[in-house]
Amino acid sequence: MDLINRKWFNNIVHLLGFFLMVTAYRDLWKRPKTRGPKWIWGILIFLVNYLGPIGYLIWGRHVPPPKITTRAN
Q1: Alpha-carbon dihedral sign for residues 39, 20, 51, 64
Q2: Which CA distances in Å does 6 have to 10, 20, 29?
Q3: Do 56 and 44 contact (CB within 8 A), yes or no?
Q4: Over residues 53-66, mean pLDDT
Q5: What is the DSSP letter of 6?
Q6: Residue 55: how many CB atoms within 10 A of its CB?
Q7: pTM of the predicted model, to two decimals?
Q8: Confidence (pLDDT) at 72
Q9: Which of 53, 51, 49, 69 is nearest to 61 (CA)?
Q10: What pLDDT sits at residue 73?
Q11: DSSP calls for 7-71
């Protein structure tokens, strides 16, 4: 693989990491509750490249339980 193709591949990998980080931070900012303190997730997202954002998006988000609706007659 020559140098031009390696630069192209590296740029794509770095952009993917950047978009993962931005997506994780955006979700962290908007989500009212997470599994664990938000400030710890913010540090992990920033410091642990690729694994921090992926870990947050898989395990850190708190998904509220579905609302059960009943029909009142």
Answers
A1: positive
A2: 6, 21, 35
A3: yes
A4: 84
A5: H
A6: 15
A7: 0.73
A8: 67
A9: 53
A10: 59
A11: HHHHHHHHHHHHHHHHHHHHHHHH-S-BSS-HHHHHHHHHHSTTHHHHHIIIIIB-PPPPPP---
DSSP 5: H
Distances (CA, A) of 7 to 12, 21, 37, 51: 9, 21, 37, 22
pLDDT digits (tens, 9 = 90+) for 6-18: 888 888 889 999 9
Q: Tell me: pLDDT of 4 over 70.
A: no
- Tokens representing residue 18 in the block: 């950047």
CA dihedral 47, 50, 51, 52 (to 10 degrees): 40
Q: How far apart are alpha carbons 44 and 39 in whole angstroms?
A: 9
In sequence order, the β-bridge partners of residue 34 are: 61
Q: Which residues contact residue 25 at a Cβ distance below 8 angstroms, ignoring those fewer than 6 apart?
A: 42, 45
